[in-house]
Here is the input.
Amino acid sequence: MFAGILAALLAFLFARIFGESQVNLSIAYEAHQAALAHEPAEPELVSRAVQAGWGLLTPIVMYGAAYGGLFRCSSGAPMVARVLEASS
Here is the structure.
């Protein structure tokens, strides 16, 4: 699971550096299009700082830990079977 969390932290850094700039550009584009159409601005329920920080980190780390645990279970099962066969 530790390897999954480590990989998730690397994925978070990549998403934060390369992905968030594209998200900010698309938000600015949508705001510009709404301003041209004279539509009122939508209320912000969760700030962009929270979305780009904890809101991005939490699910990435959770999925990383889950995938790390699944990988450990799948790679450990054959080993347990061999130990059980050797002991009998």
The chain has a mean pLDDT of 88.
